[in-house]
From TrEMBL:
<comment type="similarity">
    <text>Belongs to the HypE family.</text>
</comment>
<feature type="domain" description="PurM-like N-terminal">
    <location>
        <begin position="32"/>
        <end position="144"/>
    </location>
</feature>
<dbReference type="Pfam" id="PF00586">
    <property type="entry name" value="AIRS"/>
</dbReference>
<dbReference type="Pfam" id="PF02769">
    <property type="entry name" value="AIRS_C"/>
</dbReference>
<dbReference type="InterPro" id="IPR016188">
    <property type="entry name" value="PurM-like_N"/>
</dbReference>
<dbReference type="InterPro" id="IPR011854">
    <property type="entry name" value="HypE"/>
</dbReference>
<dbReference type="InterPro" id="IPR010918">
    <property type="entry name" value="PurM-like_C_dom"/>
</dbReference>
<dbReference type="InterPro" id="IPR036676">
    <property type="entry name" value="PurM-like_C_sf"/>
</dbReference>
<dbReference type="InterPro" id="IPR036921">
    <property type="entry name" value="PurM-like_N_sf"/>
</dbReference>
<feature type="domain" description="PurM-like C-terminal">
    <location>
        <begin position="156"/>
        <end position="302"/>
    </location>
</feature>
<protein>
    <submittedName>
        <fullName>Hydrogenase expression/formation protein HypE</fullName>
    </submittedName>
</protein>
């Protein structure tokens, strides 16, 4: 299970098994989406993702809207305007058709809300006991506007690290539903399409260096991947991290670090330090960025490492999660 968690074990699986097997057939840069240059100034973003969340319906969403929003967001993190999605279902024999119908309805509603078309797909059924309800794979294609250059290798010392809102909400929402936990207030998933927020950032004219949606492995995994790819360090300020009290309480109870808990409707933006206030103003003016704030800075020291300054004046290393803290969270 740890190999599917988006942390250190996932990275090792890619590095030591898949990449050697693919050889020269593998792309030189690996990310949530690939930007493909078709010539004549046309660039497409292409992404694929699979969803196995359990339960299929959770507070604030379902596997249906999660599948659409997740792929839309992967495209948006390259600056692309999402256009078309594919959708493939793997169904366990005995799946209740009314539940499948709810999922399909949620997918259709999410696609309409995001302004994308579901243009091709596939359906397979496996024996009872060979699966677990419904699994969904979605792939997406979008167009990258001219002049937009966003990638994990573009972070530079002095850049500001911004987050669009509260972290850890999706993971806690799914876990509370799955385990029957109550934390005094209802926690709902933050699943949402982020391409509109990205468009607002790009409209400022600021040279946005890196965008990431911190899903599996949370903020910690995303920032570690950026630090490694750009060969820089990242320094967070712990008191500036937007962790809701309900998420903090749940993580304390379960022994989790909120920085390693999944999000499905938040983005991390790495932008030039002198432009941070301008980008924050654009983010907070958007409905999905009202809680945006600066949480850290890219630094030249400790390349490939993320650290957080604590309230006591010390620092702690924010590492990649080793395995799967919360299995089947997306």
């Amino acid at each position: 299970m740890g190999h599917g968690g988006g942390g250190a074990m996932s990275a090792e699986l890619v590095e030591h098994l898949f990449l050697p097997a693919y050889g020269s057939a593998a792309a030189p840069e690996l990310g949530d989406s690939a930007v493909l240059d078709l010539g004549a100034g046309t660039r497409l973003a292409f992404s694929t993702d699979s969803f196995v969340v359990k339960p299929m319906f959770f507070p604030g969403g379902s596997i249906g809207d999660l599948a659409v929003n997740g792929t839309v967001n992967d495209l948006a993190m390259s600056g692309a305007v999402p256009l078309y999605l594919s959708c493939a279902f793997i169904l366990q024999e005995g799946t209740v058709l009314t539940e499948l119908g709810r999922i399909a309805q949620d997918m259709g509603a999410a696609a309409r809300a995001a302004g994308v078309r579901l243009v091709t797909g596939d359906t397979k059924v496996v024996d009872s006991g060979s699966g677990d309800g419904v699994y969904v794979n979605t792939s997406g294609i979008g167009v990258v506007p001219e002049g937009v250059r966003i990638g994990p290798r573009r972070a530079r010392p002095g850049d500001a690290v911004l987050i669009s809102g509260d972290i850890g909400v999706h993971g806690v929402a799914v876990m509370s539903c799955r385990e029957g936990l109550e934390f005094g207030t209802a926690v709902e998933s933050d699943t949402a399409p982020l391409h509109g927020l990205v468009a607002a950032l790009l409209a400022t004219g600021v040279d946005v260096h890196v965008l990431r949606d911190p899903t599996r492995g949370g903020v910690a995994a995303s920032l570690n991947e950026i630090a490694t790819a750009s060969e820089v360090g990242v320094e967070l300020v712990e008191r500036d991290l937007p962790v809701p009290e309900s998420v903090r309480d749940a993580c304390s109870l379960l022994g989790l670090d909120p920085l390693q808990v999944a999000n499905e409707g938040k983005l991390i933006a790495v932008v030039p330090g002198e432009s941070a206030d301008q980008v924050l103003a654009a983010m907070t003016a958007h409905p999905l960025g009202g809680g945006a704030r600066r949480i850290g800075t890219v630094v030249p020291g400790h390349p490939g490492m993320v650290v957080a300054r604590t309230g006591l004046g010390g620092t702690r290393v924010v590492g990649l999660p080793v395995g799967e803290q919360l299995p089947r969270i997306c």
